[in-house]
């Protein structure tokens, strides 16, 4: 089996509109994290991969390769059929991108098969591992981030959404993570992406922006629910200037009541229970009692007191070099967004 005619290292070209990317890794590897837009085309199922790995360790490469061919043989026709359908469905017939974990035998075998069937192929040099390295380098090198900060309830997310509508480049970290970033951020406990997939999705969106213009995002801790920001991106964000929104206590409570006004009281109670130890038993019970009396505003005020304390502690522990206050008192989210967007 010869190496495919065309091979290339990861770069912006893989995010081209409509490109067909075939991920030949196992389903488990794909689920953990994959290139956005990639089609799952495993040549081995998870159990088959385990068998081959065990044979490689116990009997060597030849035995593993023979067993691999035994698994792949019956699948070859279907692999070609699916790949041809995807190729022909493209508006512009670009070569199919094929990769595995390190650009080794799995992607090499599929690339050879597809070329033999007459399909144009580009094998990704270094595979998914090289793709991840490319993304990490980009996270390290980004220098156009602008961060919107402020205490809980100032409406950072709403302001960023309004900025997006005004044409600003916005990376919505909480939207990508599927979590609002606190004990109340995912009341229904909807499954979040893996940290690896979150990283890939963020990179894909960032590469669609113009890096000569500001890219706005929200000030976040390293963790958003169960998702962790890539360390390289987190470091870049911490080094970027912050515009801190200032709003009154009543305005912040208005925002929280709007965000959580339709939420189930039982789910809100469960969220307060998750912070009972840090909030204090008495304050937690007072918040729960307020919820049972349909007094969301009082419960929100108790929650704010806790998160304000946490916010000030974080600010003292991790001071930012460039921090600019934005007076948003009496202004709508759109008006604040217009004020920030004017900085572009």
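^ Assign residues to that structure.
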């Amino acid at each position: 089996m010869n190496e495919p005619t065309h091979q290339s290292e990861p770069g912006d070209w893989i995010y081209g509109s409509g490109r067909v990317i075939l991920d030949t890794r196992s389903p488990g590897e794909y689920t953990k994290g994959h290139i956005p837009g990639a089609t799952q085309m495993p040549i081995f199922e998870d159990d088959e991969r385990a068998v081959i790995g065990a044979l490689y360790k116990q009997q060597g490469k030849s035995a593993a390769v023979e067993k691999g061919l035994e698994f792949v043989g019956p699948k070859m026709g279907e692999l070609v059929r699916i790949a041809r359908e995807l190729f022909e469905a493209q508006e512009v017939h670009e070569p199919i991108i094929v990769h595995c974990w390190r650009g080794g035998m799995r992607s090499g075998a599929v690339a050879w098969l597809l070329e033999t069937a007459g399909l144009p192929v580009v094998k990704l040099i270094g595979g998914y591992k090289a793709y991840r390295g490319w993304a990490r380098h980009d996270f390290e090198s980004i220098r156009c981030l602008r961060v919107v900060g402020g205490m809980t309830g100032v409406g950072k997310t709403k302001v960023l959404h309004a900025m997006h509508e005004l044409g600003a480049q916005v990376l919505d970290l909480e939207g990508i993570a599927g979590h609002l970033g606190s004990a109340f951020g995912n009341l229904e406990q909807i499954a979040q992406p893996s940290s690896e997939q979150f990283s890939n999705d963020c990179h894909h969106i960032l590469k669609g922006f113009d890096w000569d213009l500001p890219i706005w995002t929200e000030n976040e801790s390293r963790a958003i629910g169960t998702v962790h920001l890539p360390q390289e991106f987190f470091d870049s964000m911490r080094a970027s200037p912050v515009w801190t929104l200032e709003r009154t206590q009543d305005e912040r409570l208005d925002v929280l009541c709007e965000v959580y006004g339709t939420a189930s009281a039982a789910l809100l109670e469960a969220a307060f229970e998750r912070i009972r130890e840090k909030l204090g038993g008495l304050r937690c019970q007072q918040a729960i009692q307020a919820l049972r009396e349909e007094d969301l505003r009082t419960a929100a005020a108790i929650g704010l007191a806790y998160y304000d304390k946490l916010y000030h502690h974080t600010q003292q522990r991790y001071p930012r070099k460039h921090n600019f206050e934005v007076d948003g008192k009496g202004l709508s989210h759109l008006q604040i967004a217009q004020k920030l967007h004017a900085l572009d």
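Residues 143-341 form a domain with the Rossmann fold fold (CATH 3.40.50).
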